[in-house]
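Recap from last week: sequence in, structure out.
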Amino acid sequence: MPTGTGAFTSTFDVAELALYAFFLFFLGLVFYLRREDKREGYPLESDRTDRTNRVQVQGFPFPPGPKKFRLFHEPDELLDRRERDLTGILAPAERWPGAPFVPLGDPMQDGVGSASYAQRSDVPDLTFDEQLPKIVPLRVATSYYLAPEDPDPRGMEVVGADGIVAGTVSDVWIDRSETFIRLLEVDVAPFLGVPQRHVLVPTQLVRIDVRRRRVTVKSTLARQIAAAPTVKNPDQITLLEEDRIAGYFAGGHLYATPKRLGPVL
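Predicted structure tokens:
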């Protein structure tokens, strides 16, 4: 065995070893990055087989397992959440591969297309300091009030895009953390053929006319306001309910009437 200065490197080429090590490192890096960029959209759904026996198009390398984030307000069972099953709700518009899907029923009630919503936690969002439900009506957040210089929508009529009165604003829901109005609570008019109920309308989609004491919702018709999704607890809203209500009213910009589905020109 060679001894002395440089004896360890006298039997092989150090530069060649470094080159091979770099090649192996770079190959592993490419493999890792190629797997990571498959976290969204893979495995692909193929139109080559029927829905009950779809081909798993994932290529090489195969996609990694789902990444799970443990959040403070979310239960552990949501770590294994799956996409919504839209069987019977959507169908291809044509028979050719890659055809767009069209709703089979009421897309606003089904929550598809532009009315889609995320599978968020079905628990209320909480404030950081006191751990209280963040979005609540003023009847619950008694320490909050509407600024005198701002319009008070309570008692105003709520009108849909068809000009029909859908109900009356009974309360406003505020965000305790951001300190502004998030939702309007509407008592639905009984003459619309639906039971007496309360629905929530996002304030970002309404126009308040102080002079006429009217709140207009341009995205939906009066009957659609009356049929909007509700909350299970009358004094708080969960993350899932908030997203579904927002998707419902936003989807009305496209689905409220058949004319809105066509081209502008």
